Amino acid sequence: MRIVLYIYHFPRFSETFIVRHFLHLVKNGIDVYVIAHRTDELPLFPELHPYKDRIRYLYPSRPKLKAFFNLLVTLIRSTILHPVLMFKYFKVTIPLLGLVNSFKKFYLEFPIFDIKPDIVHFEYLTLARDHIHLKKVFGFKAVTSFRGHDVIYTGIEDKNFYSNTFIQLDSVHTIGNYLVDYAKKFRNFQNNVHVRKIPPAVSCELLELEKRYSGSDGINEPVKILTVGRLHWTKGYEYVLKALSILKERGLKFEYHIVGDGPLREMIIYLSHVLNIKKNVIIHGKLSFSETIPLYLSSDIFVIGTLWGSLREGFSNAVLEAQALGLPVVAGEYPENVKFVQQNKIALPVERRNPEDIANKLELLIKNPSLRKEIGLNARKFVKEGFTLDKQAEEFLKLYKEVLQDEKD
Amino acid sequence: MSVPVLKIKIYLSEDEELMERKRKYIFIIGIDWPPTTFIMRKLKALTESNEFNIIAGISSPRKRTDFTLKFPSVKLVKLSHTDDPIISRILILFINILKLLIKSPKKLFQLITIARQNSGNLKAFFNLLIDYSTIALQQFDIAHFEWAISAYKYLPLLRYLKKPYTISARGRQFTIEPLINENYRERLKEVLTYAKAVHCVSKSLAEETKKIYKNSNTVIIYNGVDLGMFKCNSDKKSRGLNVIFIGSLIWRKSVDSAIYIFYRYFKLGGQGQMFIIGDGEEKQKMYSTINNLHLSDKVKYLGKKNEQEVAQILQNMDVLLLPSFAEGLANVILEAMATCTVPIVSDVHGNSEPIIHGKTGFLFPLLALDKPAKYLYHLYTHPKTLREIKEQARKGVEEAFTLQHMQEGHVKFYERLLL
After folding, report:
1. Distance of CA A34 to the CA centre of its chain
2. Is A40 exposed, middle or buried (0-12, 13-18, 19+ CB in 10 A)?
3. Which pLDDT does position A159 carry in this prediction?
4. Does the pLDDT at position A400 exceed 90?
5. Which end of chain B is more exposed for a tag (fewer CB within 10 A), N or C?
6. What are the C-alpha distances in Å from A98 to residues A104, A113, A128?
7. Residue B276: in which H helix or E strand, if any?
């Protein structure tokens, strides 16, 4: 079984789960390759260095002159080494893209010619959309992942944005059922595609770290509240900031730490000013995961205003990491899962976009250090039982085997 | 050395000649052409007063500039833009240099020195020299900057030319930027320090201006609505409320909150439809929010619309919902009131100035989203109150926010400074 993981940037700190996934496959004897855009973060992942030959980067498209010569070289090379594939490639792509774009695309997709995979796993649905035509050339099985933004809003103006992609997929991996429901309702996703839910996961090493719980109650001592996430509209920071201003009006003491960077930095600074919580808000910017761990360990509460995601299904990597490290989480949840989350006390679910509700839940945790500890420990257990990287990797292996099995059947 | 230049102008009557000589020249530096609606209205008011001539310093790229659009008593002068063809920029600079060499070589060398001192690199120097030489070749009595911070790069030139200037205080340049960028705040303070007067579009912006430089000479001139275009429609009939959001789809307008307010209104038992007009980077957020809140059949996105289309659409609306995080004073509030559409808006900066809470509209604290939902529901369940507020809203605009009020305000502003 030869697998290609198709991804935008590899490796990246924010997508360490894909690095782990790749390493797990290699260590299980799978013939796996990565095709990605270049990244400058490779030196920071020493564990990948023995497998550098399995990571193929796209040729650079700039400077243009260099790209043109590279194109000539790739054309000559593939004429000699892969004449049939090359012919098939242009037969498929020219009617789709036109002659010039077809050559441009060929240049960018050339790395796959040397690999000839059995399965290509497009790590994002948008990648599948851009490269699904390769399936007709190489005859591989196509798998993609539903991870959030690609399903929820990319190309949302057009209901059929992914229609052509969906009909060519052999299997879909989703991190949560809510994404499949959404895709069916708003993205024209059909029932006949095989779907496997594999939730996001955290490293087991995190579960070894010990968290000390503070007794701060927000009256004598400030409580430390943390968010880790891109400063992007998807994260609903405005609602969290408003909730914090309500807490301040109620006389509670807190510090709010934000780890992340992004286009809404100015909104966060502005709202901190006008909501009168400027002195309470500390923006750390983008930090590596190892730099973030001390913040997770020293914080009392993790809050995130993300506009979708399910606590029951493993909300996101940042939330799972917080839970693995024993932090109680305040975040949104779908109505059908609220009861489960409340009964098992793995987090405090809130109504999304509702600052009053977020403030009430935060206040409950701020005033009850013992509740923080109880929810934190439950969350840790919940993650340990269902969201570890080892378990995730096993699930992926099953998915790939199923896809190939279908072909034999 | 300077060479005298002979200019001959023929006047049809003595009165006309007298009037022309009396007219003062206002150089509005750094606007697009065609300009935005409110600048267009201002130009119209100033030129029709027969007291002023306008020089429009156009800073939009050449390819986006419509030179065929002419306005009586408005002279168009093209300033540099980095997207303009390099050849055209070189040509302009060459002609300017020639003219200055003939008129006053000393001035040319002074301009070169000032431009060099105020530019970090050769490219910036080149562009600055085009602008400096273009401006220095014009005869004007006062300069004006519609976007206050753009005055900063011209301060050395205006000091050298000993020309006074005024600025307009609008929206995010005064409400957001000074809070998030210390360097910007310092620059703005310098601009305010030397400005002869500051035109503010709301009292709140005048206060913000004085927070940055307390001795600013602020003058409040509200934007005005064309009551002929924005009219009420008494025939409007619908079962529930017709609610509208109008604004750029950007974070400070918070279309997401508007949709959520409408969702809460529905949860309370309200009925009706919501419409969204605007465009911007948060369009995908808007769509995903509509989907996530299961409002696809109740919320309609209408895209971007021009002023006339907005005026027509507003006539069929009951409520304008505007939960912005920052506004100087949103024009759309005045336009809505003029069309008998009840504004329910966040109480930020100047938004509260045209609204008497509960009488001509409703105000709610920033991001307190349960309140506007309740106001909507109240209007839905009390049709008589809705009717009364609609009528009062129109009256509120008629009293102080008409085109005429605004035009008189601008004329008086310059009369006080120049005549």
Report:
1. 17
2. exposed
3. 85
4. yes
5. N
6. 10, 20, 20
7. strand B272-277
- Closest CA of chain A from B286, distance in Å: 9
Looking at the structure, give the CATH architecture of the domain made up of residues A2-57+118-201+389-408: 3-Layer(aba) Sandwich (3.40)
Q: Which of A225, A383, A381 is CA-nearest to residue A303? A: A225
Q: pLDDT digits over A4-37, tens only?
A: 999 999 998 778 788 888 998 998 889 999 999 8
Which pLDDT score, from 0 to 100, does residue B73 have?
A: 84
Map tokens 């206002």 to a residue: B26
Q: In what order do the strands lie in the sheet with B241-246?
A: B299-303, B272-277, B241-246, B319-322, B342-346, B362-364
pLDDT of residue A190: 85
Cβ-based contacts of B367 with chain A (< 8 Å): 238-239, 242, 275, 355
Contacts of A355 in chain B (CB under 8 A): 367-369
CB contact under 8 A, B289 and A271: no
* Residue of chain B whose Cα is closest to the Cα of A184: B291
Model confidence, pTM: 0.90
Q: Do B256 and A153 touch (CB under 8 A)?
A: no
Domain with CATH 3.40.50.2000 in chain A: 2-57+118-201+389-408, 204-386
What 3-state class would DSSP assign to A314? coil
**Domain segments of chain B as ranges:** 14-224+406-418, 241-401
Q: Is the pLDDT of residue B11 over 60?
A: no
How many Å lie between the alpha carbon of A19 and the closest alpha carbon of chain B? 29
Q: What is the ipTM metric for this complex? A: 0.89
Q: Which of B176, B287, B368 sits opposite A157 (nearest CB)?
A: B287
Q: What are B313-357's pLDDT values in tens digits?
A: 999 999 999 999 999 999 999 999 999 999 999 999 999 999 999
CATH match of B241-401 with 3.40.50.2020: no
Longest alpha-carbon distance in chain A: 76
Higher pLDDT, B130 or B73: B130
pLDDT band at B4 (very low <50, low <70, confident <90, very high): very low
Amino acid at B65: T
